[in-house]
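Late entry, written up from scratch paper. The run itself happened at the end of the previous shift, but nothing got recorded in the book at the time, so transcribing now.
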Amino acid sequence: HLVESGGKSVQSGASLTLSCEVSGGPLSRLAVGWFRQAPGQDREREGVSCIRFGDDTTYYSDTVKGRFAISGDSLRNVVYLQMNTVDLRDTAEYFCAARLRSPGGVMTAVKTMCESQWDWKWWGRGTQVTVSS
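Output as recorded:
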């Protein structure tokens, strides 16, 4: 069960932090990703950033690298997405998703995980981020 929060309307250049509360199991067993769905992009979600807990390997898409940071709090079971210097292209519904970090002992590269929305098992309902100029 995943619940996102923190989405809001901000001006270009601002910073904000999204949170994803994860229930049902420890973060150590999971990989968690942040995906976004831009207006008009029906069902197409871009993998923005992902993290595989245990070894804390992260991945960022080229569109957010250097501006966004993903992190997790294993005591609170919350995953964060720190968004800095946002601009108009960051306007989207942001979803967090989770999957087992190594199902059947098979380890998938975090980049590979993040580049496709289709293999993620659990999804939140999303939180809206709107950036205005």
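The radius of gyration is 14 Å.
(Scratch paper discarded after transcription.)
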